[in-house]
Amino acid sequence: PRARTTGRAAGRPGNRDRVIHSAPFVNPSPSDVSSDEAALIAWLWGDGTVYTQGRYSPKRPSFGGGNRVPICSITQSENNRDYCTRIETLLRSLGVEPRYYRLPESPHIRRYEVPGKLVASVYEKAGTDLDAPDYEAFVLGLSAEALGTWFETFWFAEGSKSTPFPQVFCQTRKANPGKFEALLLAGHLLG
């Protein structure tokens, strides 16, 4: 390749010269988290909740007894019918029949129940802790496909189709700096 000035490279129609700013990161040893599981975590971190009673760690899983299985849900407005459909389709793809209840104070809001054992198994695959997830490590561990799915889904969960990118960043940064850093990192990794 010959060196060209930016003025010369950009000035000719049909010019095939390109400046590559970054390229997608390909993880040489990704975790076993699937794209659907990554999407589930994005919905939970954006429009959901993962609540644990007691202490849970993938290093010390305790599914049988006690109170270590998390209580998980995703909250979505029926006004966002497309998002409700996305959530229901995702849950079905993960082998879960979608169940939701309406909030008494906001009857147009659906709160989807997500099995805690499913979420705990995804956290375990990712090697992160339910009580204090390492958001950046989760993102770094994803395959390229799962990372792209996580990023797109997190965008939907934190904003809307029409929400500008800077606004999604600002909402996330204020709500949870760790999630903000993970979102920023994912953007860089995706190129």
Number of helices in the DSSP assignment: 8
Spans where pLDDT lies below 50 across 5 or more residues: 56-67
Mean pLDDT: 79
Strand order across the largest sheet: 1-2-4-3
Strand content: 5-15%
Helical residues, percent: 40-55%
Question: Which class of secondary structure composition applies to the elements?
Answer: alpha+beta
What can you see in these coordinates?
The chain is α+β, with helices and mostly antiparallel strands and 191 residues long. Helix content is 46%, strand content 13%. It has helices at residues 6-10, 35-47, 81-93, 116-126, 135-141, 144-158, 165-175, 177-189; strands spanning 48-51, 71-77, 100-103, 106-114. Strands 1-2-4-3 form a four-stranded antiparallel β-sheet. The protein is globular, with a radius of gyration of 20 Å. The model is unreliable at 56-67 (pLDDT under 50).
Gist of the model:
46% of the residues lie in helices and 13% in strands. By secondary structure, it is α+β, with helices and mostly antiparallel strands. The longest helix is centred in the C-terminal third of the chain and has 15 residues, at 144-158.
